[in-house]
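#onboarding

Welcome to the new folks! Below is a worked example of what a typical request in this channel looks like: someone posts a single protein sequence, and someone else replies with the predicted structure as tokens. Don't worry about understanding the tokens yet, we'll cover that in week two.

Example request:
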Amino acid sequence: MTDEIIDLTNCDRELIHIPSLIQPHGVLLVLQDPTLEILQVSSNTQEFVGRQPEELLNKSLSDLLDAKQIKLIQQCLAENFESVNPLNLSIQYLNKLIFFDGIVHRLDNIIILELEQKKAKGKTGFFDFYQQVRGTITRIQKAPMLLEMCQIVVTEVRRITGFDRVMVYRFDQEGAGRVIAEETNQETPYLDLHYPPSDIPKQARQLYTLNWLRLIPDASYQPVALIPANNPLTNQPLDLSLSVLRSVSPIHLEYLQNMGVTASMSISLMQDQKLWGLISCHHSSPKYVSYNIRTMCEFIGQVMSVELANKEASEDIDYKRQLKSLQTQFVESLSQAECFLDGMVQLKSQLLNLTSATGAVICSGNQCIRVGKTPSEEEVHALLDWIKPHLYHNLFETRSLTKDYPAAESFKAIASGVLALEISRVHHNYILWFRPEVIQTVNWGGNPNKPMEVLSDGSFRMSPRKSFELWQETVQGYALPWKPCEVEAVAELRSLVVGVVLRQADKLASMNFELQRSNEELDSFAYVASHDLKEPLRGIYNYANFLMEDYADVLNDDGIAKLQTLVRLTQRMEDLINSLLHFSRLGRAELIRQPVNLNELVQQAITTLTIARPQQSEVEFRIPQPFKNVECDRAQINELFTNLISNAIKYNDKPEKWVEVGFIEENRERRVASTSVTFYVRDNGIGIPEEHLEKIFQIFRRLHGRDDFGGGTGVGLTIARKIVERHGGRIWVESTPTLGSTFYFTLSVEANT
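Example response:
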């Protein structure tokens, strides 16, 4: 490194996915597909299975496992390994049977089999798994706010695993992390401490997106080499990205040791296919966590990832309503103005309130109107010329303008933060908002600047921090960050202005007024339903149970039966109220459009339903072709597919059930390349009579007895229609009684990407 410039990106070049080493708490075998010939092994096989590596190389796996286990692995080759892991395997060694968890994954034309020794025979069944996580998942879903959900997660993961410390670690836009929730028995808290982006290099973040959980039982371990070091088929190091035993970076192990951590476990938290944060677990002594317990923790992380969007959407709800009200004022003002500039000038104070800015500039043609504290007109023109190439989807935002635009140093006191919106490049219509520099004191978990070590030969080495004591830094040149809801409000403002240009603002204002009145009515209903209805229902439920408990010796069987009926009815009434509340909230929830990978979303919906109802594993799921990405609200479209697939499974009395999920593409015009896409969910279930095809979408409409086919409130399809309509599409069904049904739906043309 003596001839290399040393900076914080050095760690980013470490090839951590191909170390040719594993951790010593298990054995790794590389197998030829489909012959199962052993191509590579870890050098610790003697310790675990009583065979030297040389005895296993180029031999068949059948030399190590019996015929029944070989057949099991061969059957798994055609399946999704995530659904079969871990395999129950056993090997005869020292006159006794040693049991292992077998974790399998495929890499090109090879199979990687990892063996972790089990403490006891057997595999945790679904019921045990469900009992362990059921309450946790319920509490996660019911948590009203993001931080409350995070605290529930760290408490539950620590309860399940027994780690000394469990934290939720969230990344910001620059890649730095902050501990936002913590549960620990240690004296030193890490809550609210910041950590620099270099603590988790880029390639490590990439591995976290591929492999959701990573365990280090003992940070002082001696790595175990693979024999041979390179894959014989490629003569290249083996890619261990998906390996559970992969040896981690020596720099990271040194980092843990400096931190006083001996064992660690990390669970990825994903949002929009990006790494949102980590559930990070630390222990001061060696600690091994079984694969089954790790699976529970990974499932908790996946559920939390799904809930992130919902929880963040509920943050700052009052502020978001205020922004909606301001948008209404913009619509009314712009619809009455002759031109864009006149309409904006009338709303100077509202323009600042829309983004909580201290200054704004409205540009139209060669004119600029400045509001509040802004740079000079000359500086604004120069800044705007610089911003134009950096616009993305008509927007530009930064909280530290001087980082990328050094000329802003002279006015950073009033414009360190900039949010810019392009209305029309042709007519040179732009709006810029400014925020001042806010000098802050940031608490870091140790000095964020990596220290240099001078080696004996005089060369330099980048090393992890030695101390993690509180280290404070005064940060300059930064404004308060722009909230996502503020950026979204600005993006929506452009649509409103375009509507005025097209002389459609009157219609938009009318729609906005109706929407506001509808929201007020829904809010009123929600209040009545949640307070005036649910409370007495809860009282009836409780008193009925008290009667059965306290007067059991007085009541006869008929009296007890009637009270039990009363309890069931109150429970059902509460389910109906909750469903209606969910339906009313759906119409008011913000639609967060983003590119969504439907292949992952549909597979996630199927997996969630399969885990929640194990009998559904008997259903054959068909996906004829890969889906394209779709611009939509991920949470709502996930609920849409989940409702339709769940119904397809539920209303099926066939011994061999199947559900097909796919889409049909049709050219809209032969001269135009664009196509319209119709999605569908098809089943071979009981079907629907023709006279009921439209009625099934009505709220609380059921075609069967209350408890038939698993019961239900009759709201699922109503919610499905609401979601589709909010996306600008339509939904319909075609069905033949006794043969099955097909539910079709479309989304807006703009959604298909």
